[in-house]
Amino acid sequence: MKKIIKLEDLDCASCASKIENAVKKIDGVDFVSVNFMTQNMVLKANDEQFDEILKKVVKKCKHIEPECTLIL
Amino acid sequence: MKLNTLTKKEKKNLIRILIALSLFVVIFVFDKIFVLANVFDGKFGWLFPFLLYLCVYLIIGYDIIFKAIRNILHGQFFDENFLMCVATLGAFGLAITKGVLNEQIEGFDEACAVLLFYQVGEFFQSYATNKSRKSIAALMNLRPDYANIKTNDKIKKVDPSEVNVGDIIVVNPGEKIPLDGVITNGSSTLDTKALTGESIPREVTLNSAVLSGCINISSKIEVKTTKKFYDSTVSKILELVENASSQKSKAENFITKFAKYYTPIVVFVALVLAIVPSLFTSNWTTWIYRSLSFLVVSCPCALVISIPLSFFAGLGLASKYGILVKGSNYLEKLNKANIFVFDKTGTLTKGNFVINCIYPKNNYEEVLRLASIAENGSSHPIAKCILQKYNKSISNNNYFLTNIAGQGVIAQKDDEKILCGNEKLMQNNNINYTKCNNAGTVVYVAKNEQFVGYIQISDQIKDETKEVISQLKFQGIKTIMLTGDNEDVAKDVAQNIQIDEYKSSLLPQNKVEQIENIMASKKSQDTVCFVGDGINDAPSLMRSDIGIAMGSVGSDAAIEAADIVLMKDNLKAILFAKKIAQKTLRIVKQNIAFSIAVKVAILILSALGITNMWFAVFGDVGVAIIAILNAMRVNKIKNV
After folding, report:
1. Which of B70, B133, B304 lies closest to A13 in CB terms?
2. Which of B23, B169, B321, B603 is 20 to 30 A off residue B246, Cα-Cα?
3. Gyration radius of chain B's alpha carbons
4. Helix B108-140 with B8-34: angle, nearest 10 deg
5. Residue B343 and residue B349: Cα distance in Å, rounded?
6. Distance (Å, rounded) from C-alpha B297 to C-alpha B278?
7. SS3 B198
8. Cβ neighbours for B169, distance < 8 A, ≥ 6 positions apart
9. How far apart are CA B313 and CA B294, in angstroms?
């Protein structure tokens, strides 16, 4: 399943790549790309665990960039 | 910079920067004239300037300190906020130490200045990126908010996604067409600018197909939808734009990788610089000061931001002119593309057939009339073009038509027998015909075993084709044409437009084979670009390094398969796309080289003690601003 997630208040470009690298390491994530310019995250992950993975993604983002909110 | 274009957050930051800056200047000037350190005598002389500068420091840096503490608690040691805090608080510490040791007090101003300029840089980055985002947001305005659905003469406003295929929707003047469809009532003019970049409005009448995303200008129309919202043109395009740059370019990947190692290395070197020389010289304050300067330039943000900013500006500019690029990596590839393969029909030529000449000229009418009788009722483009040329109703039309596959048509009535078809038809019926020597599709006409004449039909070359091919060749690009037409036609067109190579008589599957051959035989540094009209050449679009589909608004397969979609059916867009790609990449390379060079220079000069922290922060913020301004230059590229 593929989902485009809007990232609000994503303030710096290197944070974007930090988030991307962190999400990449989550189990079950097939593809992730965080675009600082469009403030989007394209996430492709395993269908069955998608909700579970999504929760982990949200947690990771909060951890790295607490100001940044994911709009699901 | 207009104030009203700033976001709330930016305004707040700007005010904060201005307050801190003015306070800083006042304190700085007072300090230089009256020497604040003399306000208190003796050992605590440092206290007064320290407290004043601390105020400025806290005004400008409270959020950085907060973030630094938080990120450290999260275990991020190479966080730029943290490093900034270490550098500035370190500078404060050094100044206090000097104060306590009764040396000349200096360094408080530096600590404040570092944070102040760091914030200026941050502000500028945020302004530049938001501004550039807005250019793409304009494209996002394509999204229709509602549809007026008509049921039993009642009109109801609904979400476009609720409309089904076959529903009738009403589009008032000034409204956006929400879904693709066909006009069932009314006629109007449409503004397709947002979709195709074409500024001339398009006339539409009953039965015209209309595309979602166009704006209805002149009068009310009723449209029967042919697609669901999610399959409509506007959704496809928005999806493409939103997904663009999820494919990252090599330059972007390089810079993220660079940033990943850059900070830890600089921090490590700073540590070494603070400790090792001091052990030998015992001159701790000097070396710690130098290593703190290192930390000031340890943030790679300027570099990291200027690269995607340049690409984004390139993608945004292209989309403004109806050139949709699916990701910055394709911009990078297009820059390198040096073999262009074109599909002929619909790409280099208009794809509509016109009559080139009719032989014999004296009996012009008769040839056309007989051909029209035979071709009457056929939907083949060639038949259509003959009928269009004749443009008269065909009297006593009760001929019996027989289709002979691969040859033509025989029309019979009473004792009249008309043959209309290719050379084979003539030969098989033993007709003494005059062969046409011009390239193109030829329709021979005979009546009652007597040759009457022929009609030569050819596809028209687009007005801009020749210029585009010669421009590409001028840039040292190899051009190849693929066509399903026979050798004669292909050769004629190829000579006419002076294309380097051509391959004729290709079936659709042969075209893919040709692309595969070209891909297999190319050198490793070559990049192959295929340009097609998106009609049954999706496999070729996919197989080549970059696939460009042109004039394919409304063709889902092409939008899906191509890497670059030209919404306007004009070959010149290829030249413009190439120009954007070249300029963008040049700017990206300049930014990478310039930023790295300046950073390294600052590091070396700081290590040698030639420069101080002032210079480091100016250099760092200056590089960021120059790189961003350079990236903004992409927007200035002129259309060809």
Report:
1. B304
2. B321
3. 35
4. 160
5. 9
6. 21
7. coil
8. B147, B148, B149, B150, B163, B178, B179, B181, B222, B223, B225
9. 32
CB B74, CB A63: distance < 8 Å: yes
8 Å CB contact between B328 and B252: yes
The count of other CB atoms within 10 Å of the CB of residue B370 is: 23
pTM, whole model, 2 decimals? 0.80
∠ CA B113-B118-B124, rounded to 5°: 125
Q: Is residue B2 over pLDDT 60?
A: no
How many other C-beta atoms are found inside a 10 Å radius of the C-beta of residue B406? Answer: 9
Averaged confidence pLDDT in chain A: 85
Chain segment B130-156, per-residue pLDDT in tens? 877 776 666 667 778 889 998 888 888
Q: Do the Cβ atoms of A37 and B246 come within 8 Å?
A: no
Task: Please state which of the four CATH numbers 3.40.50.460, 3.40.1110.10, 3.40.920.10, 3.10.180.10 is assigned to the domain occupying B351-460.
Answer: 3.40.1110.10
Quick one: closest CA in B to A34, which residue? B246
Query: Under DSSP, is residue B398 helix (H, G, I), strand (E, B) or coil?
Result: coil
Distances (CA, A) of B579 to B343, B499, B527, B639: 22, 20, 16, 9
Say whether B620 is catalytic. no
Q: Does B70 touch chain A (CB under 8 A)?
A: yes
Indicate whether this complex's ipTM tops 0.85. Answer: no
Residue in the block written with tokens 């993975």? A53
Sign of torsion over alpha carbons B228, B233, B238, B239: positive
Tell if the CB–CB gap between A17 and B312 is shorter than 8 Å.
no
User: Nearest CB to B245: which of A4, A12, A38?
Assistant: A38
In chain A, residues with a C-beta closer than 8 Å to the C-beta of B260 are 17, 21
User: Thinking of the domain A2-71, which architecture would CATH place it in?
Assistant: 2-Layer Sandwich (3.30)
In this complex, the residue of B129, B246, B305 whose CB is nearest that of residue A33 is B246
The token pair at B79 is 């966080």
> Contact, B491 vs B353, CB < 8 A?
no
B28-81 pLDDT, tens digit per residue, is 888 888 776 666 666 677 788 888 889 999 999 898 898 888 888 877 777 778
Domain layout of chain B by residue ranges: 1-140, 147-242, 351-460
- Supply the CATH classification number for the domain B147-242: 2.70.150.10
Amino acid (1-letter code) at residue B302: A
Radius of gyration of chain A (CA): 11
Q: Which residues pair with B479 in a beta bridge?
A: B340
Q: Where are the domains of chain A?
A: 2-71
Q: How many CA atoms lie within 13 A of B296 on its CB side?
A: 38
Number of helices (H) and strands (E), helices first, in chain B? Answer: 20, 22
**Structure-block tokens of residue B538:** 């999706």
Q: Is the pLDDT of residue B638 over 80?
A: yes
Residue B490 near residue B504 (C-beta atoms within 8 A): yes
Choose from B130, B134, B135, B246 for mutation: most chain A CBs within 10 A.
B246
User: How would you list the strands of the sheet with B168-171, edge to edge?
Assistant: B154-158, B147-151, B168-171, B221-225, B181-185, B209-210
Q: What residues of chain A lie within 8 A of the CB of B76, using their CB? A: 64
Using alpha carbons only, what angle is made at residue B515 by residues B514 and B521, rounded to the nearest 5 degrees? 90
Q: Do A13 and B126 touch (CB under 8 A)?
A: no
**What are the pLDDT digits (tens) for B400-417?**
888 877 788 888 888 888
